[in-house]
Amino acid sequence: MQKSVFVYMLMLVFFIGGCWPSEKNKNHTGWKAGTARAKITPEKNIWQAGYASREHAAEGKITDLWAKALALEDSTGNRAVLVTTDIIGFPKPVADRVRTRLQAEFNLSPAQIILNSSHTHSGPVLADGLVDIYPIDINGDENILAYTKSFENNIVKIVANAIQSLQPATLYFGNGVTRFQVNRRNNNERTLASQTELKGPNDFAVPVIKIVDGQGNIKAVAFGYACHPTVLSGYDWCGDYPGFAQIELEKMYPGTEALFFQGAGGNQNPLPRRSIPLAKQYGLTLAAAVERVLSEDMKKLSPTLVTAYSEIDLPLLTPPTKEELQKVIDETDVEYIKRWATRLKKQIESGKPLITSYPYPLQVWKIGDVPVMSLGGELLVEYSLGLKNMFGRDIIVMGYCNDVMGYIPPVTVLREGGYEGATSQMAFGLPCPWSEEIEPLIYRGMENLASQAGIVPSPAESK
Q1: Is 351 exposed, middle or buried (0-12, 13-18, 19+ CB in 10 A)?
Q2: What three-state secondary structure class fits 117?
Q3: Are strands 370-375 and 378-379 parallel, antiparallel or unpaired?
Q4: Which residues pair with 379 in a beta bridge?
Q5: Phi and psi at residue 441, to the nearest 5°
Q6: 86-145: per-residue pLDDT in tens?
Q7: Is the peptide bond before 201 cis (omega within 30 degrees of 0)?
C-alpha cells in the first residue's frame, strides 16, 4: 500500500512538472504581452540617412533613438512580435540577417515578425542602405559596419526580452484622427502659407492598440500615422515628430511603452516644417490624438492571432544600357545620380546583369478581428486607401516594413512620373522605375494573404 501511494505521488509529481505547462498553455484563455526597448543612438557621429544634401556626419543629439519590441501571444500559444525603430528603413540584408537569427533562436518565422521603421530622416545610416547617396563607401566604413552589427544585435536582444516578459494582458483597438500630413505631390510647400485649400489624397487615421496588464494598467500603446518624419533636416540625432509623440505618451502614462509604426506615408509630409518647435508640435498633436482614443471606449480584441507572409516578384521596366548610363554620367551634375550610374555601368561591364524584378515583402496579421496589413518600401497613401476600401476602414496599414527598397507608387503616380514615380529609384539604387503591373500584383498578393488569415473583403466598403 505504501509503495502504491509512493508510485502514485511520483506519477503525480511527474504529471504536474512535465505535462501541466503544455496543458496550461493549451487552456490559456487570454492574451499575453511583453515589451522591451534598447537605445540605438550611435555612440559615434556617423552619417545620417535621408537627405542627399548632407555634407558630413552627425554633430549632436536632440533626442535619443530607440528600438522597441512588443511580443504578443494568443490563447493557443501563437506568437508574433512587432519591432519599431527610429531609423529610415531596414535594408533587405539587415532584415534578412535579423529574421534568420530570430527564427533560429526563438522559432519565429518571417510571418510572425514585423520590422517597422519610423523613417526618421535624423537617424543613422545602416550598411547596404541608400548606397549611392553618400560621398563615402558605407559598406566599407568601419564605424557604419560596427553600428549596423550593434543595431542587429539590439533587435535580437529586445525581441528576446519582450518574449521573456510575456504576462497576461487584455488588448483593445481604436482609431483616432489628426491632420498635419500634407500630400506633397499635390501641394507646393513654397506656397503653402497662401493656399486656402489642400489637395489629397490623404489618410488621417491614427490606429491605436492598447495593452492593459492584469492590474488594469496600460502596459503598452502601439500607434501609427502615415506621414514622413522630415520636419528636421539638420545634423543632430532625433526621432522627429514620432519620437516626440512617444516621449509625450510615456509622460502621460508612466510605466507605459509607446511604440510608433509608420503607415503609408510615402507621399505625405508634415508641413510646414524645418524647426524643432514644429517637430514637437506635431508630436504633441499626434500624442493628443492617441490619448483621446485611449480615454474613450475601445474595442476589446479576442485572444486569437493569425499571421501570414509572402514575397512577390515586382517587375521593373527595361534597365538602362551601358551607353545610357554613360550619358547620365556625362550630363548630370547631381553627385549621387552620377555615383548611381557609375556603379551600374561597372556592374554591366563586369558581366553581371541588372535586376529586372525585386522580391517584395507582404504580410498580414489578424489580431482578434483587426487586420494588420504590412507592406515593404515607401508605400504611397493610395495603397492604404485602396486596402481600406477592400477590407474596411478599421484595418491597420503599415508601410516601411521588413525592407525599404524604394517608393511603392500606384499606377496613377507611375504615369505622372516625378520623384516618387520615376526618379527616386536612383536614390535607392534600383536600375529603373517599376512597371505598372506592380499595383494589381500587390493587391492580389494582399488578398491571398488575407484569405490565408481568414480575412474577407468588406462588401460594404467595396461597393
Answers
A1: exposed
A2: strand
A3: unpaired
A4: 408
A5: -65, -40
A6: 999 999 999 999 999 999 999 999 999 999 999 999 999 999 999 999 999 999 999 999
A7: yes
